Amino acid sequence: MSFRLRRWSLFPIILALAIAYGYFSAREHQSPAGNASPAVSVAGPASIQGPYFSDRDRIADRIIAAINSTRHTLDIAVYSLTQPDITAAIEAARRRGVRVRIVSDEEQSRDRHSEVDYLRSRGVPVRLSNGYRGERSIMHNKFAIFDGNLVETGSFNWTTSASSYNFENAILIAVPEVSAQYEGEFNHIWAQAR
Fold first, then answer.
1. Cα 160 to Cα 82: distance, rounded to the nearest angstrom
2. For residue 15, which of 29, 92, 133, 175 sits 20 to 30 Å off, Cα-Cα?
3. Is 72 an active-site residue?
4. Residue 1: pLDDT band by 50, 70, 90 thresholds?
């Protein structure tokens, strides 16, 4: 009986902690202006491919295939880009008339293996970002929108290390509401980048 009484006396404390956790977690996910991004809920079947994992699912090849299938627009927000095969696919897409835009992290673009300057020299529009808080802030996104209707996202940087050494993940999502939100975020980052 005493154990049962003690267990139930902890219930209000546990409940209060759960409520506090939910409150502070929601506040962490709000934008600096205090407005939370609206969540997307999708009714009906969604087209989701993956998750894919770098040690067994050849993520770079899947990204290259998506780039090669792109016909109109390709918007890329990627922290680091060093993978030559992905770079070649991006350049080929631009040559065949795809409107390509890339936002990358400014500091990371100075890495000796970065392909950013090469793509710029080939006419690909590239802007660099320092994140949204300036000094010590980075543009750490890793996503792309293909023809406005397919999104690739996950931890996977478009790098040789991500392909050959790191544990990484990626997912491909073909849901109009999700694509629209990523496109809006890309435009937001693009507008503040240089």
1. 6
2. 29
3. no
4. very low
